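Thanks for the sequence, V.! I ran Hsp20/alpha crystallin family protein right away. Repeating your input here for the record:
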Amino acid sequence: MRYYPVFDNLFDDFFTTDAQGTSSVMKTDIVEKDGNYELSIEMPGVKKEDIQMELKDGYLNVTASHNTDKEDKDKEGRIIRKERVSGSYYRSFYVGEDIHTEDVKASFNNGELIVTVPKEAPKKIEENKFIPIE
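Predicted structure:
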C-alpha cells in the first residue's frame, strides 16, 4: 500500500475555521453604509432558490444548501480529490430585536448574497416633562 502524505490533512480542516477563526463557508464582510449594515456573504455554486433567510428573536438566520453531482474520478471510478463542500450551511447574525422582516432587503447575484439591515436606532431617553398644576 502506498502512502500519500498530501492527503494527510485533507479531512482535518473540513468544516473547520481558518486562521482568523471564521468559517470556511459563507464568509461574510459587514460594512456600515448609508445608515445601514450591509452583509456580503459568499455563496459560490449556490442557487438563489436554495437560500432561506429568517428573522427571529433579533437574529438574522441564513441557511443555504449546495449539492454537487459532478465528481472527479480516475479511470477506475475512484474519487481522486474532493475539496468542494456539499451540504447545508448556516450563519446567524444578531441584528437587534427592533428590526422587522420588512426592514431587511436582500439580493443575490453571481454567488454573493447582499443583505441590507438598518442600524438599530438608539433608544430615546425620555425628557422630564413637568405636569402643570392648575
